[in-house]
Amino acid sequence: MMILTTNCAPDEKFRLTVADNFLKRFLGLMGRFRLEANEGLLLAPCNSIHMMFMRFPIDVIFYDEEYKVVKVATNLKPWTGICVAPGARGAIELPAGTLSRLSAKKLTNIKIEPESS
Q1: pTM for this structure?
Q2: Alpha carbon distance 71, 60 (integer Å)
Q3: 36, 78, 110, 111: most buried, per Cβ within 10 A?
Q4: Which residues contact 26 (CB under 8 A, 6 or more apart)?
């Protein structure tokens, strides 16, 4: 597990499951019925996602190698195709509505760290 923090809500933390190989990235959230609040999926490396076989909408943060936000996509609906972010190193999928709540327009960089045990 990894922990995500953002510049626009530094006190709020998100627990991320890591998808770091082809199969884990391809499957992503398929088969799940929802993400809990403050839960997400870290896809790395990744510069695009698909919404095929998804059962719920999501928000996505795409970031570069310096953890600067390259693109934000909100409320992506199931079965709506793909979302691409040229130059992105990774993507973080969060519950739909998360980025609206965090003022996504102010989101410029993120921090990802291992979860402390």
Answers
A1: 0.94
A2: 8
A3: 110
A4: none
2-108 sits in which CATH class?
Answer: mainly beta
Name the phi and psi angles at 73, rounded to 5.
Answer: -125, 125
Where is 27: in which H helix or E strand?
A: helix 22-27
User: CB of 23 within 8 A of CB of 40?
Assistant: no
The terminus-to-terminus CA distance of the chain in angstroms comes to: 10
Using one digit for the tens of pLDDT, what is the confidence trace for 27-78? 999 989 999 999 999 999 999 999 999 999 999 999 999 999 999 999 999 9
